[in-house]
Amino acid sequence: GQQLNQSPQSMFIQEGEDVSMNCTSSSIFNTWLWYKQDPGEGPVLLIALYKAGELTSNGRLTAQFGITRKDSFLNISASIPSDVGIYFCAGQMGGSQGNLIFGKGTKLSVKP
Amino acid sequence: DAGITQSPRHKVTETGTPVTLRCHQTENHRYMYWYRQDPGHGLRLIHYSYGVKDTDKGEVSDGYSVSRSKTEDFLLTLESATSSQTSVYFCAIKQAGQPIYEQYFGPGTRLTVT
Predict the structure, then answer these.
(1) Is A85 an interface residue toward B (CB < 8 Å)?
(2) A89 to chain B: which residues are within 8 Å by CB?
(3) Degrees (nearest 5) of the Cα angle B11, B75, A29?
(4) Judging by beta carbons within 10 Å of its beta carbon (0-12, 13-18, 19+), is residue A24 exposed, middle or buried?
(5) Theoretical Cys-Cys bridge with B94: which of A8, A94, B31, B81, CB 3.0 to 4.6 Å?
């Protein structure tokens, strides 16, 4: 089946640092979504991207839809402790009937 | 909050028993989805529905069936649970309207098959 490669798999953050993660695919997507999941809860939608090249912000979060439509990245600026969790990218192909393909997630933890 | 509830939130069952998980939504969304989440695999689509009595298979549908007899409820049934079906199950709805494509998730059901 289709696959999204999400990297890094995990990373440690120190409060105040900027964080970057990305997703790549061999397939073209019409939509990119970024979710955050806290332990014991469902994923929460952070940002949705609909156009190639689109750059969208949500507070300290910024995400971009790659020009080739095969990739997307998410940046978190000036990280805070509540940013820890698992971040997932998801891509949607085709028309409105298309289903989402999810990356395997990037786990953000606090540096010991 | 997309008005999605899942029940039960936790369940322990024995191998070979039937199990039904319920997803309930209050906002009249046409599309509903069932996913499972496992370490190392992320979220994988089991089945989805695009209307009352209209359902289709996802990536990992073997061993699962679904039913949607009314808009607000989407049921996932494990006819004979196996240990490989131990997982966290999430229901989702799709926000309608082109070009918007946004799925919102419920709180999840943690299922353990012993």
Answers:
(1) no
(2) none
(3) 105
(4) middle
(5) B31
